[in-house]
Amino acid sequence: MIKLQRFHNLLIALLCAPIAAIAADGNAVIVNGGANPAAIACVACHGEDLKGNAEAGIPRTAGLSADYIVKQLHDFRAGTRHNAMMQAVALTLSEDEIAAVAKAISAKPGVNILVTAPTNPSADSAAWIAMRGAWERNIPPCTSCHGPDGMGVGNTFPPLAGQPAMYLEAQLHAFKGTPAGNVAKRGSKAKMLATRYNDPNGLMRHIAASLSDAEIKMLAEYFAAMDVSDTPVAADRIFLK
Ligand code: HEC
Ligand code: HEC
């Protein structure tokens, strides 16, 4: 009887023992998804090498900063960045999985951005706004934050170079907060209608609100067409991201 009692106690102790936390495996999340089946494998949409899908407007994530990826996943979760697909994924990943997957994605080979020597852009072209800005409308040059040719800088400023034009255009409209073509709703109302308001100090919202829809399209195409390659060419012009 005593023996049985001890066995019983042992059983209870075993059952109640805190299950040792199993560290999330970032690469497994990329390929198989999270523990929750709703956290679909990243490769399903971002592509096997996580270089994105231009036709579907899905961005490259390979090689992005881990801090930036964590921030975006938290922002999708909080709803300060709207996207039905990514909100579902971000909401169903655990914090451990978010940290692990961000680290694994940032370690994946990105792309080589062949930064071109600065040229003399013609006024009002995409290159002009990208490199010189439009100060009369408080638009700083895109490259002052996003780096030469939009290659991305540190943990805060994501790369624009080589991202799908459709994606870049959609993001600028999400910051601007007005449906494409609806310029009439700019101003204070536009902020309320923004579907991406995760930018520190409203940096991108201010800029996007000052850009016309035609300029947004032009800039998206300009950065998407940047010289991006998987194979290094001239060593002095290559920046691996
Ligand atoms: C069902 C398709 C789908 C799946 C699965 C998916 N994504 Fe995404 N992801 C998208 C789309 C679409 C976007 C663009 C969202 C937008 O327009 O704001 C995106 C954007 C992102 C971004 C923002 C990139 C940037 O430059 O700001 C990150 C980070 C990201 N995804 C990470 C992940 C991770 C990590 C996984 C796997 C756990 C994953 N995604 C799985 C479709 C998907
Ligand atoms: C003052 C700094 C600054 C300037 C200038 C700037 N940006 Fe940004 N931009 C940011 C920051 C910061 C983010 C990331 C916000 C976040 O945390 O999600 C961003 C994000 C973006 C994104 C979303 C990228 C992605 O992967 O999701 C696009 C597109 C973009 N900027 C385009 C532009 C363009 C085009 C210009 C020039 C007209 C420009 N930016 C100028 C700071 C800047």
Salient structural properties:
three-stranded antiparallel β-sheet; Cytochrome Bc1 Complex, Chain D, domain 2; mainly alpha; 2 domains; 241 residues; 12 helices; binds heme C; 46% helix
Q: Widest sheet: strand order?
A: 2-1-3
- Calculate the mean pLDDT score and round it: 86
CATH first level of the largest domain: which class? Answer: Mainly Alpha
Oligomeric assembly: single chain
Give a verbal description of the structure.
By secondary structure, this protein is mainly α. The chain folds into two domains: 81 residues, Cytochrome c-like domain (Cytochrome Bc1 Complex, Chain D, domain 2), CATH 1.10.760; 129 residues, Cytochrome c-like domain (Cytochrome Bc1 Complex, Chain D, domain 2), CATH 1.10.760.10. It is 46% helix and 3% strand. It is built from twelve helices and three strands, in the order ααααααβααααααββ. It has a three-stranded antiparallel sheet, with no helix packed on it. Helix 4 packs antiparallel against helix 6. The chain is globular and about 85 Å long. It starts with a helix and ends with a strand. About 7% of the residues have low confidence.
